[in-house]
């Protein structure tokens, strides 16, 4: 059994989807949810799904504490699912090619600091792009710049606003993110 640790800062719909997907798997399971925001919906979801959660502050993240806690769960893969802080260098060094992130756009477009959630969807809507999508990539020390593992696309209508784009992205994430996580684990 391989161990997945999910990092999330927000609502946690991706975290829940991944937890449920691997609850039926014979090869991997989500062993913990790490969260840096005390009011994040993901904490409630983890509790309801009986997955332990670890809440830490911005200050904790700059100390070795989070890495120590993470090591206790012996993760084979760390999955960032709507996690909005930069991963410190010591954690990246401790888990080479074992940290992946989902980004709600077709990187390298719409990546970088400050490009998350609705900020991304608004930018895509303003540019009237004919398509958008999701990117899953390895995490390195630069925001959204690690090697891309998989991308899935969806067509846009010229009249799509940020809310419609967000809904299309949500559907792609629900369908494909757990499968990509599984494929990464299989290749390890
Ligand atoms: C997801 O759409 C994810 O792609 C995005 O945050 C959302 C989290 O939703 N991530 C980023 O923007 C990272 N730059 P969730 O909390 O419901 O899973």
Automatic annotation (TrEMBL):
GO molecular function ontology, one term from the record: phosphoribosylglycinamide formyltransferase activity
Active site feature: 103 (proton donor)
Keywords: Purine biosynthesis, Transferase
Domain Formyl transferase N-terminal: 2-180
Keyword Transferase attributed: yes
Site for Raises pKa of active site His, residues: 144
Pfam families: Formyl_trans_N
Entries under SUPFAM superfamilies matching the protein: Formyltransferase (SSF53328)
CDD domains with a match to the protein in the record: FMT_core_GART (cd08645)
Superkingdom field: Bacteria
Enzyme class: transferase
Any one Gene Ontology cellular component term annotated for this protein: cytosol
InterPro entries associated with the record: Formyl_transf_N, Formyl_transf_N_sf, GART, GART_AS
GO biological process: 'de novo' IMP biosynthetic process
Sites where the protein binds N(1)-(5-phospho-beta-D-ribosyl)glycinamide: 12-14
Catalytic activity: N(1)-(5-phospho-beta-D-ribosyl)glycinamide + (6R)-10-formyltetrahydrofolate = N(2)-formyl-N(1)-(5-phospho-beta-D-ribosyl)glycinamide + (6S)-5,6,7,8-tetrahydrofolate + H(+)
Binding sites annotated in the UniProt record for (6R)-10-formyltetrahydrofolate: 58, 101
EC number: 2.1.2.2
PROSITE patterns: GART
Pathway listed: Purine metabolism; IMP biosynthesis via de novo pathway; N(2)-formyl-N(1)-(5-phospho-D-ribosyl)glycinamide from N(1)-(5-phospho-D-ribosyl)glycinamide (10-formyl THF route): step 1/1
UniProt cross-references to PANTHER family, sorted A to Z: PHOSPHORIBOSYLGLYCINAMIDE FORMYLTRANSFERASE
Protein family (similarity comment): Belongs to the GART family.
Function: Catalyzes the transfer of a formyl group from 10-formyltetrahydrofolate to 5-phospho-ribosyl-glycinamide (GAR), producing 5-phospho-ribosyl-N-formylglycinamide (FGAR) and tetrahydrofolate.
HAMAP family documented for this protein: PurN
Protein name: Phosphoribosylglycinamide formyltransferase
Source organism (scientific name): Flavobacterium kingsejongi
């Amino acid at each position: 059994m391989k161990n997945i640790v999910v990092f999330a800062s927000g609502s946690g719909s991706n975290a829940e989807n991944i937890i449920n997907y691997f609850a039926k798997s014979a090869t991997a399971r989500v062993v913990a949810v790490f969260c840096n925001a005390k009011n994040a919906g993901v904490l409630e979801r983890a509790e309801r799904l009986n997955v332990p959660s670890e809440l830490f502050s911005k200050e904790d993240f700059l100390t070795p504490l989070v890495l120590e806690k993470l090591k206790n769960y012996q993760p084979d893969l760390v999955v960032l699912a709507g996690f909005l802080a930069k991963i410190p260098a010591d954690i990246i060094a401790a888990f080479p090619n074992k940290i992946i992130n989902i980004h709600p756009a077709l990187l390298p477009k719409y990546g970088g600091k400050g490009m998350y959630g609705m900020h991304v969807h608004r930018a895509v809507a303003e540019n009237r792009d004919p398509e958008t999508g999701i990117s899953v990539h390895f995490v390195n020390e630069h925001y959204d710049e690690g090697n891309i593992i998989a991308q899935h696309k969806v067509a846009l209508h010229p009249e799509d606003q940020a809310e419609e784009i967000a809904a299309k992205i949500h559907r792609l994430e629900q369908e494909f993110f757990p499968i990509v996580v599984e494929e990464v684990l299989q290749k390890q």
